[in-house]
Design a protein that fits this description.
The complex is a heterodimer. By secondary structure, chain A is mostly helical. Chain A is 74% helix and 3% strand. Chain A folds into two domains: 69 residues, no CATH class; 294 residues, no CATH class. Chain A has 19 helices and four strands. In chain A, α16 packs across α17. By secondary structure, chain B is α/β, with parallel strands linked by helices. The longest helix of chain B has 20 residues. In chain B, β7, α7 and β8 form a beta-alpha-beta unit.
Chain lengths: 425, 263
């Protein structure tokens, strides 16, 4: 019965699509010979294609609705009977990724293999300068993603202008070098500091805004930054940008291009480790909890004694710091900055990494960055359809797994000793 | 004895609408005070005014935390009011649904701890001690609230009654001297209401925290409160012991209806 209805619906959709595409696909006017060509096979393809897609789509949606029900129905019991809950979550409840991450015996070997691979990667036979470069690029986006994750994933502030702080970092190194000859290592903390300051400057006016309004204001801020960089020739040399920025040095050692690339690769690995370390510690700290509480319910959060102004400003400032750091590395890596590198598309890309990977999850952001940055590089053949595929992936994700690839898990606290001593109340 | 909370002629206007009209209220140490009134009388507005969510248009709110100087707090930001020692719960439960039960309570300790960004990153000795203290105190509160079995459960997965208890636990974690409960018994069955009554009594006597609560359930109001204030159309129409209020003709007329009430 249900199946028949589904088929009927899909049939209607197929007919509708055939009707819509008829003028474009079926009719072709040959203006030279002045005849109309009827391309009926195309109609058939469209019909069959849209029927199949629609049917699969409906099937998946129906399955998702069912799955949701199954997941939700045992919820009331969970609080009553904890023993069975434990059994259930142990057996089938949690998704594989989460179980993998909760069990050190499972994730440790994976982690060791991955880090060994990461260390050996530049010296493997297939690792050309190009290969190392794109992986370095992905690492850069991991850093950006983790930084934005503080603002969007933890504090829940929808930030569409993250690229502005990336630009601040890149331009601070470029300008500091140009005017004062300051090197990479000194520019790194300064770029981060400038970006953090800009974060606070943006933070103040937008403190009262949330959701869509915040998104629009941050978007506007990023555009203003980009336009200033593009038009203020005396300051930033306009669209032609600043060239000849030195690569990071290593105790004055001379390096050729390939060695330099490897060096930046390891530099990025180190910076990513540092980022993961800091973000991980922040997540489970007093400040991190305040951010999450702010995301969950701002009024309740304030009523519990958290200063929302401080929480938001620290989130903005810390998030921007990572963008600043990444910006400095970016300037050093490409040895050239111009405003065209800091368009809205970049912000959207970083946000997509966070959303696709899973908001508030470090592992998720890393996976998201690798998927979104590396896939387009290796699928150059499809480069024309890149944005199309990108949009499609996003739509499918939002419908079937809106929480992202990896769901951020909250820290578990153990209270064995006391629970045993006092028993259940 | 000096009142913990002293509200004088509190007025709140929303444009042309006067939601609260010169409302006065006092809470003394060790008391359970109930604020009752028909729907729309302005009870929750009163809570929002004294906790700083709304800025009152007139009148004064003073708090005198035990052992500290009396302070005027109207217009003070909500989080600072909480830091003064007045914690509240909400009529429609406002937990942090995606955080665990323990973390919900730990947020309550936020204003009693001070670790900053640097401390969080470095995890120095002081930060670790503070963090441990936060966890221990929060767990102790959850034990008292009979929620110790669910510390690692997400707040959204708790049953309704447990969520209500968790809200109280979270407020308790801010180490208040006065607890403001907005309809704590709403949606509870009689057995849960009895347990709640017992809980409020314990909070009041054992933890020595005064309670000001908005409640519609007359059974719990009459049995637990030392004094009752009655609000109607933004005006305080009566105040007194449960017996006095119950016999007050104005209250019977305005709140309980013309007919005799059945309590």
């Amino acid at each position: 019965m249900n199946l028949m209805a589904q088929i009927r619906q899909s049939l209607i959709i197929a007919l509708w699509f055939m009707f819509l595409t008829f003028p474009v696909l079926a009719v072709r006017v040959n203006t030279i010979e002045k005849v109309v060509e009827w391309r009926w096979p195309y109609m058939v393809y469209i019909g069959i294609g849209s029927f199949l897609i629609s049917f699969v789509w409906r099937y998946l949606l129906a399955r998702k609705a069912q799955g949701g029900k199954e997941e939700r129905s045992p919820a009331p019991e969970t609080t009553k009977d904890r023993a069975t809950t434990a059994l259930r979550t142990g057996a089938t409840g949690k998704p594989i990724m989460q179980r993998l991450m909760a069990e050190p015996r499972l994730y440790r070997p994976v982690l060791i293999v991955l880090s060994l691979f990461g260390l050996a990667f530049p010296f493997l036979p297939f690792a050309s300068t190009y290969q190392i470069n794109i992986v370095t690029n992905a690492l850069l986006y991991i850093m950006l993603g983790l930084g934005l994750n503080i603002v969007v994933g933890l504090a829940g502030l929808l930030h569409l202008g993250y690229v502005a702080f990336y630009a601040v970092g890149a331009y601070s190194y470029a300008l500091l070098y140009y005017h004062f000859g300051i090197g990479f290592w000194a520019a790194l903390p300064m770029g981060a500091l400038f970006a953090a300051l800009f974060g606070i400057i943006l933070g103040f006016p937008v403190l009262r805004l949330r959701g869509d309004y915040l998104a629009i204001v941050t978007l506007g801020f990023a555009e203003i930054t980009r336009l200033i960089l593009e038009n203020w020739n005396e300051f930033s040399f306009g669209p032609s940008g600043i060239a000849g920025i030195p690569r990071p040095g290593l105790f004055g050692m001379e390096m050729d291009l390939h060695q330099g690339t490897i060096y930046i690769y390891f530099l990025m690995i180190a910076l990513c480790m540092f980022t993961i370390f800091v973000v991980n510690r922040l997540q489970n700290s007093r400040i991190g909890r305040a951010w999450v509480a702010l995301r969950e319910d701002e009024i309740a959060c304030e009523a519990m004694g958290v200063d929302p102004t401080m929480a938001k400003l620290t989130a903005f400032a810390l998030g921007s710091t990572w963008a600043g750091l990444a910006g400095v590395v970016f300037a050093a890596k490409t040895t050239f900055v111009n405003p065209a590198s800091f368009t809205f598309l970049e912000s959207a890309m970083i946000l997509s990494i966070v959303v696709l990977g899973g908001m508030g999850s470090i592992v998720g952001v890393i996976i998201g960055a690798f998927i979104l940055i590396l896939l387009p590089e290796y699928l150059r053949a499809f480069s024309e359809y890149r944005m199309l595929l990108f949009g499609l992936i996003m739509v499918i994700m939002m419908i079937f797994r809106p929480q992202g690839i990896v769901v951020g898990i909250r820290r578990i606290y153990e209270f064995k000793k006391r629970a045993g001593k006092e028993g259940s109340p | 004895m000096e009142p913990l909370l002293d509200v004088k002629e509190l007025t709140m206007d929303f444009g042309g609408l006067r939601a609260l009209d010169k409302v006065g209220l006092q809470v003394f140490p060790g008391e359970v005070v109930a604020l009752i009134g028909p729907n729309g009388a302005g009870k929750t507005t009163f809570f929002n005014c004294i906790t700083g969510i709304y800025k009152p248009t007139g009148g004064d709110v003073f708090v005198a935390p035990p052992g500290k100087k009396r302070r005027r707090i109207n217009g003070m930001k909500t989080h600072r009011v909480t830091a003064q020692g007045m914690a509240r719960t909400f009529q429609n439960i406002r937990l942090f649904p995606e955080m665990t039960v323990l973390e919900n309570v730990m947020i309550g300790r936020h204003c009693r701890s001070r670790a900053g960004v640097l401390g969080a990153i470095l995890r120095d000795g002081a930060t670790c001690r503070e963090e441990k203290d936060i966890v221990d105190k929060s767990y102790a509160i959850l034990e008292k609230m009979a929620l110790a079995g669910e510390v690692n459960e997400l707040a959204k997965n708790l049953s309704y009654g447990a969520q209500r208890r968790l809200e109280i636990a979270r407020a308790m974690a801010t180490a208040p001297f006065l607890l403001l409960l907005d309809e704590p018994a709403a949606g509870m069955n009689p057995r849960e209401t009895d347990a709640l009554e017992e809980l409020i009594r314990r909070i009041c006597t054992e933890a020595n925290i005064a309670v000001l609560m908005i409640e519609h359930d007359m059974r719990i109001v009459m049995s637990i409160s030392s004094r009752i204030y009655v609000l109607d159309y933004g005006r305080m129409i009566a105040a007194g012991t449960p017996a006095e209020v119950m016999e007050n003709p104005i209250v019977i007329k305005a709140y309980l209806g013309e007919e005799d009430m059945d309590v």
